[in-house]
Design goal:
With 308 residues, this protein is an alpha+beta fold. Helix content is 34%, strand content 28%.
């Protein structure tokens, strides 16, 4: 099987592990930077893909690891592969939905997946009503910028919230105000889902003195046992958003888990090292299953791959 991993760098832990796992199972592997892939469209012509101005190498399956820094271009590359019939471990619509936090929460809520109380606004007017809908202070304030990079802060008082929102909205960024659950009231959990199955669970602990939840901003992860309800919520969230591989972040609170984010390109180092789970192998195994399904009756484009 010919496997293409779309990633900005071979040195990234997750990219390196995926390549190692695929080669260990006897597959040919290429790691290509999506920013070095060119797209071609034209009247009466089949869509084309190029890599560094040469025909795109033939591939049987692609594993996208699209960085936020090239999100829109990377999604166009993934979408072109999908048009050409190449099986994808995470297709463009699912990646796109996961990167738009409010859109993701809308999809989850409409499908019956419980989410935290959340409000979105483009103006600072009516802050007290917004906070009331979100359950009162403290609240999480999430920035939604045009390039889909985000930031998170905790506002513990109305005064701090008003100051934060006036500054943020003055910069032209939209914001989401979301219910904040303190540690005494519940647990902040991450479930890693591959192919509709939860592989492992982690508990996330923000670094002392830091307001952000993400590992990149100092949070730590510890192995955690997930309840059946949390596992069901994670699987449902992955299905609703349309992702084969993702991390589902949730709050385990009284009354049941609340999903607040779905990450379509999660790092796997913490799960592999802390939980002893071969995530890379599971992703490659899922890629094999997708190729097998595509090679069923009537499949032609996927059998040919994306090459000429």
């Amino acid at each position: 099987m010919r496997v293409t991993i779309l990633s900005r760098s071979r040195a990234i832990y997750t990219t390196r592990r995926l390549a190692e796992a695929a080669r260990a199972r006897g597959h040919a592997v290429r790691v290509l930077d999506p920013a070095q892939v060119e797209l071609g469209l034209g009247p009466g012509a089949r869509p084309r893909l190029f890599h560094r101005r040469r025909p795109f190498p033939a591939t049987d399956v692609a594993i996208p690891r699209i960085a936020v820094s090239i999100n829109q271009y990377g999604l166009a590359v993934v979408n072109q592969l999908g048009i050409l019939g190449v099986p994808l471990v995470n297709a463009a619509p699912g990646i796109s939905a996961s990167r738009n936090q409010m859109r993701c929460l809308q999809l989850l809520s409409a499908s019956g997946v419980r989410v935290p109380r959340t409000v979105m606004a483009a103006h600072p007017a009516g802050l007290k009503e917004m906070v009331k809908h979100a359950g009162g202070v403290p609240v999480l304030v999430k920035l939604l910028s045009a390039n889909e990079r985000g930031g998170v802060m905790i506002c513990e008082t109305m005064q701090s919230l008003e100051a934060a929102l006036e500054a943020i909205l003055g910069l032209g960024q939209n914001i989401v105000v979301q219910q904040y659950v303190q540690e005494a009231e519940g647990r902040d959990l991450r479930a890693l889902v591959v192919g509709g199955r939860v592989l492992a669970g982690l508990r996330r602990r923000p670094a002392v003195g830091r307001m952000a939840r993400s590992l990149g901003r100092g949070a730590r992860y510890d192995r955690a046992e997930l309840s059946p309800a949390c596992r069901r919520a994670a699987v449902a969230a992955a299905r609703v958003v349309g992702l084969e591989v993702c991390a589902v972040d949730m709050l385990d609170v009284k009354g049941g888990p609340l999903v607040f984010e779905v990450n379509s390109s999660p790092g796997i180092r913490e799960v592999e090292e802390d939980c002893g789970v071969d995530v890379a192998g599971a992703v490659v195994e899922r890629a094999e299953a997708l190729v097998a399904a595509a090679r069923g009756p009537g499949a032609t484009a996927a059998r040919r791959g994306a090459g000429p």
